[in-house]
């Protein structure tokens, strides 16, 4: 069951963010305000979720946890840049 939850979070991070925002206070505890979660929803949804997880579980942003955060940012950046690469390659 946890693996299925992880696959759903990785496949649909924006849907998970909307559900978390509407059904819990998980994002509100990690971010004090609405601006950063809104920008995270648009640009880096997985990174926003990972940072909220690290903050809510009181883990330090150092070592392996920082590596997890960087990997999430790279996954998000790869999703943003993949379309531009494919468009450039077709011409």
Task: Offer a few descriptive terms.
91 residues; mainly alpha; 6 helices; 80% helix; globular
Structural commentary:
- It is a single chain.
- The mean pLDDT is 87.
- The chain is mainly α and 91 residues long.
- The chain has helices spanning 2-11, 13-23, 26-30, 35-42, 45-56, 64-90.
- It starts with a helix and ends with a helix.
- The chain has one domain (2-90).
- It is built from six helices and no strands.
Helix-strand blueprint:
Elements: H1 2-11, H2 13-23, H3 26-30, H4 35-42, H5 45-56, H6 64-90
Helix pairs in contact: 1-2, 4-5, 5-6
Helix count, DSSP H or I runs of 4 or more residues: 6
Q: What is the number of beta strands?
A: 0
Overall domain count: 1
What helical percentage do the residues reach? over 70%
Characterize this entry briefly.
The chain is mainly α and 91 residues long. It has helices spanning 2-11, 13-23, 26-30, 35-42, 45-56, 64-90.
């Amino acid at each position: 069951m946890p693996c299925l939850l992880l696959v759903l979070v990785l496949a649909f991070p924006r849907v998970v963010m909307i559900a978390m925002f509407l059904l819990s206070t998980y994002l509100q505890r990690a971010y004090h305000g609405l601006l950063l979660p809104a920008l995270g929803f648009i640009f880096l949804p997985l990174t926003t979720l990972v940072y909220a997880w690290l903050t809510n579980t009181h883990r330090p942003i150092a070592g392996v946890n920082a590596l997890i955060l960087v990997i999430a940012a790279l996954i998000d950046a790869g999703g943003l840049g993949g379309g531009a690469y494919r468009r450039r390659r077709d011409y």
